[in-house]
Amino acid sequence: MAMNNQPRTEFNQALKAIASERGLDASVIIDAIKQAIIAAFRRDAKENGIEYSEETVFDAEINSLDGGAKILIDGKDVTPPGFGRIAAQTAKQVIHQKIREAEMGVIMDEFTGKVGMLVSGIVLRFDGANVRVDMGRTEGVMPAEERVPSERLSQGQRLTFLLKDIRETIKGREIILSRADAQFVVKLFAREVPEIGANSVDIKLISREAGVRTKIAVHSAQSGVDPVGSCVGQKGVRVQAVTNELGGERVDVIPYNEDPTELIKLALAPADNLKVKVSKKTLEATVIAPEDQLSLAIGKDGQNVRLASKLTGYKIEILGAPAEVTEDTPQS
To answer: Does an H or E element contain 247, and which?
Structure first.
């Protein structure tokens, strides 16, 4: 409906005001009004014992001057006397519903373009283990599995989230947020490290145990760029900013290496002087660690070797050996 060509009547002005205020197309509101009027007519007819078949084609006409409505069946005006008064309340309710749905559609379309990006929100309330988050024009949900287990949240707390997905539910589309996903850490580094945004540094691999520790392997194809130094920052300021956002979660930054033997050594840091033998066929690796490096290589409760295994894609077995064993054996 081309509103610009219509007379400046009270109805037109009200319609344009609603469209402008809600950020909607005026035609969306007109369609909502027509659907509401048809729905009200069918209900009124049913209450008076008149049933229409599903094949019946209804249409509604809206007078652009005063907002008056007519119901048409096969082009014939069948509007009953007093219909406007009888159906007004029903039409009003459906109009509000359609406008809310249209608004939500606009909002969801906006957030669809932000999937995989960082967003800010305020903890609104808790639905069991799920967290409802106020995102301004709408709400998001952080399911229990997307929460950091050790993180204590409070109502009114402002946080950064990864907008992980928009899922279809029985209640409509729902924004899924996460702070436990490994990509959350990747996006935090992208925010803190300009070299990542400039594509001169790339996070090649990541493994994470949310709330405890993360390992990332970084690479740069650009000459003169130190990928680890770029991510750590001067005096550790960049990696510390990420750690602070993660609530103190430790982040290990290592250089990426295409050689699995070297990559496994790097992934097992801070352990040093390791002897590594890998099988590329079975994706298994045996690591011989000096006695004084064994506990470092394994980590508390096996955490270091577990994260290294996730990072490299190899099943890693660590064995102890005398401290003087330092040489590599050939790959199988």
So the answer is: none
pLDDT tens across 171-203, in order? 778 999 999 999 999 999 999 999 999 999 999
Contact 271, 296 (CB under 8 A): yes
% of the chain surpassing 90 pLDDT: 57
| Cβ-Cβ contacts under 8 Å for 17 (sequence gap 6 or more) | none
DSSP 220: -
pLDDT, tens digit, 9 for 90 and up, residues 271-312: 999 999 999 999 999 999 999 999 999 999 999 999 999 999
| Token pair listed for 187 | 């996006």
Tokens of 115: 């999937």
**CA-to-CA distance for 277 and 258, rounded, in angstroms?**
15
One-letter identity of residue 71: I
Residue 321: per-residue pLDDT: 75
| Residues 6 or more apart whose Cβ sits within 8 Å of residue 216 | 185, 186, 189, 203, 205, 206, 231, 251, 252, 253, 254
The enclosing H or E element of 168 equals: strand 158-169
CATH of the domain at 46: 3.30.1480.10
Strands 213-219 and 250-255, bridge-based pairing: parallel
Report the sign of the C-alpha dihedral through residues 110, 116, 120, 121, in that order: positive
Residue 100, Ramachandran bin (φ over 0: left; ψ between -120 and 50: alpha; else beta): alpha
Domain containing residue 235: CATH number: 3.30.300.20
Give the domain-ending residue among 178, 194, 209.
Answer: 178
pTM of the model: 0.73
Give residue 96's pLDDT band: very low, low, confident or very high (50, 70, 90). confident
**What distance in Å separates the CA atoms of residue 282 and residue 286, rounded to the nearest whole number?**
12
Which of 178, 204, 224 is where one domain is finished? 178
Between β-strands 130-134 and 139-142, what pairing exists: parallel, antiparallel or unpaired? antiparallel
